[in-house]
Amino acid sequence: MRRLVVLGAGTAGTMVANKLRRRLAREQWQITVVDRDDRHLYQPGLLFIPFGVYRPDEVTKPRTRFLPDGVDFVLGDIDRVEPDSKVVLLVDGTALPYDYLVIASGTSPRPDQTPGMLGPHWRESIFDFYSYDGAVALAAALRGFTGGRLVVHIVDMPIKCPVAPLEFTFLAEAYLRARGIRDRVEIVYATPLPGAFTKPIASAHLASMLDERKITVEADFLVERIDAKTLVSYDEREIPFDLLVTVPLNMGADFVARSGLGDELNYVQVDKHTLLSNAYDSIFALGDANNIPTSKAGSVAHFSVEVFADNFCQHVAGQPMTGSFDGHANCFVESGDGKGLLIDFNYDTEPLTGTYPLPMVGPFALLTENRRNHWGKLAFRWMYWHLLLPARPIPLPAHMSMAGKHQPAEEKQP
Amino acid sequence: MTVTTIGVTQVHVDAEGFLTDYDEWDEQLARLLAAQIGIELTDAHWQAIRFLREDYPTQGETATLRRVSTLAGIPIKELFALFPGKPAKKMAYIAGLPKPHGCV
């Protein structure tokens, strides 16, 4: 009996278990999935909780509901992986030997990494929305907010869902306007990036959207510490706030570091096309847990698992892996007032304008605000629970397509 | 990609002037590149630049500030003092490496 162990039953780990259970014969392969709890969080939904769009109970379900028959689910905290002896050790002493290991333990916000963040103002006037408790606490704080300076802030890249802080800003602006107190609030967007977003064309579009909404961008702002209610950068700029919504430093799981498998942020170093560890040919890392240079996002987890499943079957049969992941991501971006944008990109092609063709429901306009993109985003929650996690067919090709996209002039030459 | 002359050396650079060929760099060139952005290289600068040069071939991309800070033991605050304004970009420029990915 060969043994596959999957660490993490989030978006990537759950899809891996579902896809591979169908592909690997039950009499030949045992599949074990490990997680520390049985609560699967629909992370894209966290964005809406501060504004009362989703009730908290609409974004969590038991992990085990989405794991197929024939998969063993083990509840426990991971102490470390011993890659040379191919065993996973849990904190309670359990040893899980494996032939192949998939690390899908994601990335987490780490407010402890910025001095002053976890001080007396944490969850009083300093909030995050990338955690369930943070999003719920922020909902109450926003309801009670009557005016002053609202600062939306990113500690450092990479973060999961890099558009979410912008979406939060657009939604907050619309929310304050709807409450009739927009003129009593100054909104500042503080980012370590040189502009609103990472890639030039999308960054220009998003910057003009911030500008139209009278939101000030403080670029190249790398925070060193928080002094009471002031952000202080390494180059000694200060941004005082009345309400801070921050995205803490994101880091991979600590067991990755303890196992000697991580980079400086605990991300597993892998080949960006096959997701196989650079150091061990029995270890893959999927989803946010790896260090591939694309967005940390559910769509990346989805598209890469599609490529990975075929590759895995070849790899364990001793054949070369023929699939190559291209870094494909697509994301709906909420822009407030019931509208949204769509972006679609990969390692080589930045988000462009144009259209995204999709049979029956498309096309969706790229980098353009409209209602259809907003409804697409809301409809995605149903798709996530019912199609994506169970790894049922979804008519979204894994590899990015140029169909419908407008190429910038200077890139047209071959 | 274009060819430009720095000092007496011809090198390949991208639109923003970052060297595109790892092997065209040497320490004399680094001094000239640094001078172009108003930096005179001290031992402390060199520690960061040499780390970047050694790290790049193993990683395939330019180290971030946090990586330099963690692995080379130079506090981020000091990197801002050594390479004022945009330290990640300035270090890469002097080290003859691509501009660090604005991680997507």
Summarize the structure.
The complex is a heterodimer of chains A (414) and B (104). Chain A has 414 residues and is of the alpha/beta class. Helices cover 23% and strands 26% of the residues of chain A.
What do these coordinates show?
The complex is a heterodimer of chains A (414) and B (104). Chain A has 414 residues and is α/β, with parallel strands linked by helices. Chain A has three domains: 174 residues, FAD/NAD(P)-binding domain, CATH 3.50.50.60; 139 residues, FAD/NAD(P)-binding domain (3-Layer(bba) Sandwich); 83 residues, no CATH class. Chain A contains seven helices and 24 strands. A five-stranded parallel β-sheet of chain A has the order 5-2-1-9-20, covered by helices on one side. Chain A has a five-stranded parallel β-sheet with strand order 11-18-12-13-14. The mean pLDDT of chain A is 94. Chain B has one domain. A two-stranded antiparallel ribbon of chain B has the order 1-2. Chain B is globular, with a radius of gyration of 13 Å. Chain B starts with a strand and ends in a 10-residue tail after the last helix. At the A-B interface, loops of A face helix 3 and helix 4 of B.
